[in-house]
């Protein structure tokens, strides 16, 4: 059910629209990415217009009878646009949901911080600090997971849309 809802939402996203991505710093110093400015200090990021990397030219091997057919510039431009769109959609999907989860964790940390400020005994303060450390670790894991997912999605977009990418590997 979740996958079908996510798929439906992805189909509703405009594919040719260039999304603005903002880089923000959280209260505990972690970096977050969002479609909307997080606060007054949010910085819009410059996204690359070019491909992530250029594929190596295809060379015929001894086992291949012929080299791959050359790709015309119109096909290449179309493939680049499709790749950009694929990466943009993946970025919105992965970082959007990741930022939602991180925001929830940060709200919980904020509430714990308020409880810590009002805590009167050392044992309660220690327990709250430990819980906050657990939330910080969860935020770090969430960021690492989002970056890993994005790298995987980026590679998949390149393989799917770049002419010769599947045969060059």
How would you describe this structure to a colleague?
By secondary structure, this protein is mainly alpha-helical. It is 60% helix and 6% strand. It has 4 helices and 3 strands; from the N terminus they run H-E-E-E-H-H-H. It has a 3-stranded antiparallel β-sheet with strand order 2-1-3. The longest helix is centred in the middle third of the chain and has 46 residues, at 73-118. The chain is elongated.
Write the layout of secondary structure elements.
Layout: H1 2-12, E1 22-25, E2 31-34, E3 43-44, H2 73-118, H3 122-161, H4 165-168
Antiparallel strand pairs: 1-2, 1-3
Helix pairs in contact: 2-3
Give a brief outline of the structure:
By secondary structure, the protein is mainly alpha-helical.
